[in-house]
UniProtKB/TrEMBL annotation:
Pfam families: ABC_transp_aux, DUF7088
The organism's place on the tree of life at top rank: Bacteria
Protein name: Uncharacterized protein
Residue ranges constituting the ABC-type uncharacterised transport system domain according to the UniProt record: 156-381
Organism placement in taxonomy: Bacteria, Pseudomonadati, Pseudomonadota, Betaproteobacteria, Nitrosomonadales
InterPro entries: ABC_transp_unknown, Class_I_gatase-like, DUF7088
Length: 449
């Protein structure tokens, strides 16, 4: 009887050992097939933003990255390890990003032929296109991939000669910061005067009219309406309280009306902003506003009105001032609603239009505030993201419509000398002393037994 019990125990232990080995084997196999990544840093600095993931999904083929870096950098140390760790975040979502390293000191001719000037410079190839990167951060690398994702550089033509905002300007009202962002993701801009050669779809992907300040001549307006009639894409920024400066025929062709006054939004008080800053919080379904939930700011905005026009499909992109009004009187620090003169909100402040012309889709966006992309206000809320999404949609690149990569907001931990002394005492004295006292207590209790 005792022998049978021993055999049963041995069989049970044998099966338990077999099951344990099988479990360890399965766990090991699963570990080799699955990768789990936790990022507990503030703002997820060690993870990719959704913008970067979306950009990777827009890249159909493999990406070749050649890193020209020495094995050790005097300032950064193991620079190859830093770059490998950075790119591995992208490889988790796109495994066919292939990375190779070349030491420019060992192979100087190869580095010279590639035009490399800095240690740690990246040369990236995708579908025959090439781009370079000298700074390693998510925003720079994702912008580079976005440029490569475009089959060709998109051309923006900025109407000039009438006091318009400049896409390369540095003045507060200009759009220079926005222009630099567009350049980083694959757009090229040029000023266009209506005295130049005719504007066509072949030499311009998008025409931008950014708040003219003087009257356009009748012949110039005819050229613009002709460009629109032939299917040209257009971004038109109109400021509140201003005239159209001769562009009324363009508005009529689009079926867009402009209500008088400047939009006043009482909700701006919640952000300690002037009441003349209309807050965009309501976004209608559209490719431009897909997954877009940021607050946008439209300073000194003008209400847009959709008039009857069967030629276009129209979509309201942004509504503002559900509790506000359009101030038609003199703007003061504390404007008040005048029921006899002022219209009540909400108002449409950005509208998208599209139609088919000669078997090609034509796209137009009209925004009732040029200030929302100006240097002074571009950093407010999601203004930059919305502006980039609008231009991407106008250029026909819906797959690249995405929220821009976030900036890293982690901060250094700076400790005072007294705090460092406290930590030193706790780690070097307190912890060992705690273990010593615990050991002595345990030993004393054992001796009493």
């Amino acid at each position: 009887m005792k022998l049978d019990n021993n055999r049963r125990r041995q069989w049970r232990k044998g099966w338990q050992l077999v099951l344990l080995l099988v479990f360890i084997g399965l766990a090991g196999y699963w570990a080799t097939q699955q990768r789990i990544h936790w990022d507990i840093s503030q703002n997820g600095r060690n993870s990719l933003s959704q913008a970067s993931i979306d950009t990777l999904q827009a890249l159909g083929g493999p990406v070749e990255v050649t890193v020209y870096a020495t094995r050790q950098d005097p300032r950064l140390g193991d620079i190859r390890s830093i770059i490998s760790g950075f790119i591995s975040n992208y490889q988790r979502f796109k495994p066919d990003i292939n990375v190779s390293f070349v030491d420019p000191t060992e192979y100087p001719q190869q580095a010279q032929a590639a035009g490399v000037k800095l240690n740690g410079e990246l040369v990236v190839h995708y579908e025959g296109r090439e781009a370079r990167l000298t700074s390693i951060n998510e925003q720079a690398f994702t912008n580079l991939l976005m440029r490569l994702a475009r089959p060709q550089i998109k051309q923006l033509s900025m109407l000039s000669g009438h006091g318009e905002r400049k896409l390369d300007g540095i003045a507060n009202r200009d759009l220079g910061d926005f222009g630099r962002k567009l350049s980083a993701i694959g757009f090229a801009a040029r000023p266009y005067s209506l005295m130049d050669d005719g504007l066509t779809q072949e030499n311009s992907d998008i025409l931008v009219i950014a708040s003219p300040q003087i009257e356009l001549l009748a012949g110039e307006v005819d050229q613009l309406t002709d460009y629109l009639d032939k299917g040209g894409n257009l971004l038109w920024l109109v400021d509140g309280g201003e005239e159209l400066y001769g562009l009324q025929p363009l508005a009529e062709a689009l079926g867009i009306g402009f209500a008088p006054g400047v939009i006043v939004d009482p909700q701006a008080k919640q952000l300690n902003a002037p009441l003349t800053f209309a807050l965009g919080v309501g976004y209608q379904p559209h490719a431009v506003t897909r997954q877009f939930d940021f607050i946008t700011v439209f300073p000194f905005a003008r209400p847009l009105i959709l008039e009857d026009n069967s030629q276009w499909q129209r979509s309201v992109l942004v509504e503002v001032a559900s509790e506000g009004w359009a101030e038609t009187g003199i703007i003061t620090d504390e404007p008040t609603f005048n029921a006899e003169k002022d219209a009540k909100g909400p108002f449409s402040v950005a509208v998208a239009l599209n139609r088919v012309v000669d078997d090609r889709e034509q796209r137009v966006v009209v925004v009732g505030s040029g200030y929302f992309l100006a240097n002074t206000y571009l950093g407010n809320g999601g203004n930059l993201d919305l502006g980039v999404n609008i231009v991407n949609w106008l250029a026909g690149d819906e797959r690249l419509i995405t929220i821009q990569p976030r900036a890293t907001i982690d901060h250094r931990l700076v400790l005072s000398q007294s705090e460092l002394n406290f930590i030193t005492i706790v780690v070097l004295v307190g912890v060992p002393l705690l273990f010593l006292v615990s050991g002595m207590l345990i030993n004393w209790r054992r001796k009493r037994r």
